[in-house]
Amino acid sequence: MSKAASPAPEFTTHEEVMFFDTDVGGVVHNIAYLRMIETCRTKLAATMGMKLSDMAETGLFPVVVRTEIDYRRPAKLGDELEIHGRLEQLNGVKFWCAFTVRRKGDTENLITCRQALAMVQMPEGRPQRLPADWKDRWTTDSKS
Amino acid sequence: MSKAASPAPEFTTHEEVMFFDTDVGGVVHNIAYLRMIETCRTKLAATMGMKLSDMAETGLFPVVVRTEIDYRRPAKLGDELEIHGRLEQLNGVKFWCAFTVRRKGDTENLITCRQALAMVQMPEGRPQRLPADWKDRWTTDSKS
Amino acid sequence: MSKAASPAPEFTTHEEVMFFDTDVGGVVHNIAYLRMIETCRTKLAATMGMKLSDMAETGLFPVVVRTEIDYRRPAKLGDELEIHGRLEQLNGVKFWCAFTVRRKGDTENLITCRQALAMVQMPEGRPQRLPADWKDRWTTDSKS
Amino acid sequence: MSKAASPAPEFTTHEEVMFFDTDVGGVVHNIAYLRMIETCRTKLAATMGMKLSDMAETGLFPVVVRTEIDYRRPAKLGDELEIHGRLEQLNGVKFWCAFTVRRKGDTENLITCRQALAMVQMPEGRPQRLPADWKDRWTTDSKS
């Protein structure tokens, strides 16, 4: 890691819980959080140089290869949520992002989540190496 | 219409209402029915010769250009639903399908829906003529 | 309509097209627009006095009873969309909202949509009268 | 574990990949598998005595508290998938289910997934003990 490395990139998005996010149990459905996390992850990726508008043309996509998500407390209709994501680790051809979902202004985690991604060239589905400069650009828990 | 025309193609699919179909109002969310209808429409299209496995290769897709849907009575968690679709009308470059959603074994419509589709060549997005033999093959409310 | 009636309420929301909005045809899936429209409709309803946070408690929900949607041109991954909604008509126990989806800063409609809603008391599912003051508050194409 | 314990309950569901399951990358979107897994899990739960039609009335729901999912190979439009679920482990107030997604008749896993669930009394959100007889009824990797 170079001396000039920046802190790991992070990004926060905001969502108001809509009807389509909820289920008959009265709270947000477990799958709906993953859509919110994808929006956060996409904006985080854009700050790292991966633009959506480029991807459809180049066919080089960041692809989720593993998700771990813990549902700690439920969110409800109308809640204003903050989804926070950050680059956590570079690990060979994979990079890990970590997310939390909280109510706005609150410090309690409703959701914690980690996702591993790989850069994949579509339509062949061939994993690509991560850009060589990533591990020098940002301070992460990188493994060599 | 030729003398040998068959009745319009139709298809029935079955769905059990899952949590992800419902919302905090206690009933099926309005958007969820459109997913059920797409499944029925896709199976109906297969009987008409449009196979999913061909589409990704040829890039020729039946594309929804208009949906009209009436929500008459709500379905609930665990309901067993029958989605019935049929080819209703051929109209220039468009064809219309009509759908009902009912509880299994019931005659009351929960949902009625009509969708107009066009055959579109992707990625250019160019609408194609409907296959010439369609109006001879099936008895529909076709307009010339 | 009273002389003091305000223009019909309207609201604009913004969405960036995510992967989960798209399908293998390379464009936004037809159902995804309805989620964007629901978000716009919910914010529009809030300006009219219907707050999400109240609904779960009172059980009085604005329920979609009919949707008409025309898919005119497709949006693509990464597009920045503006969804514009306005109260269009009061009609007995129903009110109609009209929506357009456009690319940011563009004047061409990708999507036009109208939805009729009723105020429904859940869990009984009993439609309620619209608030008596609505037709005096706003200038709409109201039918008596 | 009693001598009379049965093998752990398992269930297999079938899905044909629809347009709404896919994204612009040309394959099934990562979130769509979780909907398929929920359908399998719900049918598996029914075999264990948890019926959807009872839940809305009793307010006692099996709630996902953790998901771990590995995306190994992508499924494509029109693929016929088999989702296999089984009760894997009883662990205090939680039970774990394990899932695989494969193409019909194939032995290669596209997706592997584990989910921990708790029985929660809604709307209070209070976790309940698992039924006392579960650990005697089925042979699982139960921890005391």
Automatic annotation (TrEMBL), chains A, B, C, D:
Gene3D superfamilies: Hotdog Thioesterase. One of its GO terms (molecular function) is fatty acyl-CoA hydrolase activity. Pfam families: 4HBT_2. CDD domains: 4HBT (cd00586). SUPFAM superfamilies: Thioesterase/thiol ester dehydrase-isomerase. Keywords: Hydrolase. Transmembrane segments: none annotated. It comes from the Bacteria. The keyword Ligase does not apply. Belongs to the 4-hydroxybenzoyl-CoA thioesterase family. This is 4-hydroxybenzoyl-CoA thioesterase. It comes from Oceaniferula spumae.
